[in-house]
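Work Package 3 (structural annotation) set out to generate three-dimensional models for the target panel prioritized at the project kickoff. During this period the team completed the workflow that converts sequence records into discrete structure tokens, so that structures can be stored uniformly alongside our sequence database. As a representative example, we reproduce one entry of 302 residues exactly as it appears in the project archive.
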Amino acid sequence: MVASSSFEDLVQPFQIEALGLRGRFVRLGPALDAILAPHRYPEAVAEMMGETLALTAALANALRFQGEFKLQTQGNGPLNLMVTDVTHTGDMRGYARFDASGVAAAENASQAPVPRLLGAGRLTVTVDHGPSAHRYQGITELTGSRIADCAHHYFRQSEPLETAISLAATSHKQGPARSAALMIQRLTPDDSDLEPASDDAEDDWRKAVVLTSSVTTDEMLDPQLRPAQLLYRLYHEDGVRLFRTRRLRQGCRCSRRKVANTLAAFPREDLASMVVDGKITVTCEFCKKTYDFDRRDLDDMP
């Protein structure tokens, strides 16, 4: 078995001028392991989280922003909530809320992953540029068989940009957790000075979608197949231009100060009701780190 350290956490941006498209190839290995490890998710949840985290990195790295990009799914299925986010510096985190018995029953069902795990609900994309800037948010229904289908629906409804996405993931039960995303987007005159070389841009786009859809899970998750090799294998007839690789990592932004500021916003009587055994214990949903505040800490709060 190949060690997980050979499967790097990265985003490989690329462009194919001949087909008039740009793309992102994402791989998550050690970072995905670090995000999933504290939660001990069932296999189906871990794989869905792996795909969603890879999708989040691909979507975020197609944008220019300073702050945080967040993707959230919320539905009436046993996996009723997933929250994943990434900063412009590449720090990623995520968590899922689920009903264990419902997930166990869904794993044996014949439905596709989204209907049996997420159910009916919505997908929300939020780009937060910071407290002094405008926050963008787009919301669409959870539509399709897989999380990639939900992303396609989001672009059809919210973004005037033709997009094709392939996702893959394995859980920790099959060895080191790995996930990947391959996303292409059709260039427009507003996006770039480049123009498709062919006279038939529609045929070029259809060809690109077919090539992108042909990638297999094994190829996307093969640590022996480097991103440049995979992209060349898919698009070599039209020429692939690679840009500088961007690194990703697990990175939670929780801190004692942030938790203290949150607690300070509660009325004193509410804080008193939270005290157990002389202290309030707060656990971060993302990384499961705990923060304890005793009565002295509470009394010192403004």
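The chain has a mean pLDDT of 91.
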